[in-house]
Amino acid sequence: MAIQLNDRDLLIFQLIDEHRVLLEKHISWFISGEDKPVLIRDRLRKLFYLDYLLCHRHGTKLPWWTTPTKPLVYMLSQISRAAANCSEEALDLYDSEVQRHFLEVANLRMLGLIDQKDEKLTKFHWTTVKTEAPGKTVDAFVTFTQNARAHKIAIVNHPAVTTELVPSIDEAIKSGAESVLLVSRDDVHQAALQKLIAARGSINAKRCLFATHHEIYREGLVATQWATCDATKSTVFAKPAEAAPAAAWGNMPVATAV
Q1: For the segment 37-54, what is each residue's pLDDT rounded down to a tens digit?
Q2: Nearest-angstrom CA–CA distance, 233 and 215
């Protein structure tokens, strides 16, 4: 049974091609943006039954996945690649570690959209960096506005603890990123990254911020207490200023022109 592909189907194909593998929840958020996530389960199932999508259960335990069954992962088939004019995939997307990396990156994008929906930031824009070496390069560049300040950041998901990481960070800063967010799966890996970057003595080490996936899932992208190389907490994404009590207004300093 053939179906007429619509613009949303083609958008689904493009999003999956961009991220390599996606869960239904990711696709729902990416399509809806800051609005309520759309219900696309039936459409995804239909595209799968008609061979436009590949679908299988992820092979390993994902700490952030809270349901008893392992999540369903969607990938592109040959038919959908042709329909959306997507090139062939060089990576083995059935490899559970490769899948895990890309699913974690997609989670970070989704959490940014959730922050936008909750009005913690605005103008959220995500640019995926397609790489054939996940864990060794920058995964995405993100721009958004928070507290009337525009931010451009680079995101590196669970990178390998090797000296090759430092040139990637330097290049991201050179391209215009104000900070590089390095996200780890656990505290041990994070501490190893902090030690590595601090020891290399790069001038951009002070622009590196660290957090674990667990912290970001709990707090959100901007509310997370990102740490610096020396493990101090950063205020780069400050919380909105609270209104001062009325009695304190008279004690505020008077601004002067400069």
Answers
A1: 788 999 999 999 999 999
A2: 13
Amino acid at 62: L
Q: What angle do CA 123, 125, 130 make, to 5 degrees?
A: 175
Helix (H) or strand (E) holding 126: strand 122-128
Provide the pLDDT for residue 253: 35
C-alpha distances out from residue 68 to 62, 101, 107, 221, Å: 11, 21, 19, 26
Average predicted confidence (pLDDT) for the chain: 88
Residue type, 180: V
**Residue 219, both tokens:** 């707090």
- One-letter amino acid identity for 201? G
Residue 12 has pLDDT above 90, yes or no: yes
> Any idea what DSSP says for residue 227?
B
* Amino acid at position 177, single letter: A
Query: Rounded to whole angstroms, how far apart are CA atoms 179 and 253?
Result: 32
Structure tokens at 142: 């993100």
Look up residue 251 and give its two tokens: 């004690």
Tokens of 23: 């869960």
Quickly list H helices, 77-236: 78-83, 96-117, 165-174, 187-200, 213-219
What is the pTM for the complete model shown?
0.89
